[in-house]
Specification:
Beta Polymerase, domain 2; Hydrophobic Seed Protein; seven-stranded mixed β-sheet; 11 strands; about 50% helix; elongated
Amino acid sequence: MTQRQPDAGLEVYRVGGAVRDALLGRPVWDNDWVVVGATPDMMRRRGFKPVGRDFPVFLHPDTAEEYALARTERKAGHGYAGFTLYASPDVTLEEDLIRRDLTVNAVAEARDGTLVDPYGGRADMERRTLRHVSAAFSEDPLRVLRTARFLARYAELGFTIAPETQALMAQVSNSGELAHLAAERVWAESEKALGESSPEAYFTALDGCGALAAWWAEIAGEALAACLAAMASVPAWPEISLAHWRYARLVSPLDDERRNALAERLKLPRAVIDLARHGAATARLVSQPLTTGAVMDWLDGQDSWRRPERARAQLALVKALAPERHEALEQAFQAAAAISPQALMAKGYKGAELGKQIGVSRCDAVERALCQSSA
């Protein structure tokens, strides 16, 4: 006997990004599904596993893909989480789709491949337009960031934001609602955008509607051009994500005070903060004459002796920014890193004198390497 599938007999539709990317000819990595006419009890009896307490979302027992009950939502507070949800068997697919942000994300696909497209998402894909589904777009401030992020992903295909959607984004920005977003949500959207093919589009779109000043004030307005120009040069160093490299380069034109203020506001992970600080120091180093003192400050500042991977990462950045200086700095680092504390101890150095001599020996090694490279 053939085993009954958990979703057999349910009115199920594939929705969202999987449908959008399939229609655009892009790879589809994950599927999301909407179930119409079902209840939580029905899903649990079929073996679906509920996830979260506030959303009627379930994981398929075999595929672990998400199946969400058709639902509507109503604004009931500030920010991304300020909504009351209503999930019931009487919620239609069209009612579920209209709560979505953009028309390109509001297309559903039935089991037989038939598209359900009540809001013109496919036509907007053909027009290469990001357009809001309804006026409810303005109720969720996170959608401003999401729209800019989608532009960062699809700008290479010729997508633009519809003028009326740009107007709604500006309306949300002017309302003060963006301030109610959690920093973690802002960074999550921004980190994704930084990993897309056209990350500069994210920041220019937010700046154009006034949203950048709410969370990224340090790079908004006149500062943005220099920051985006810096972001265009990143190293080939896969041990660090492209998004994090781009962030570090984006903020490299800022002084320490403004860069730290931005990092604190966004509640950035320590690794990202450190990368940005070291990247800014590298940019300063290669913009000035290479002296022994400047190179030692650079190496000491990133704790190159205990964390040599940091020095190697920054040397990759040097190669991207000033390739003519890479060999000299590579040799200087290698020579200084070769200084052996054990060898100095064998010569009788110990305690504070040992620490002082290690520093002197490293400085001497850096100076010799710089002199050899310039000879």
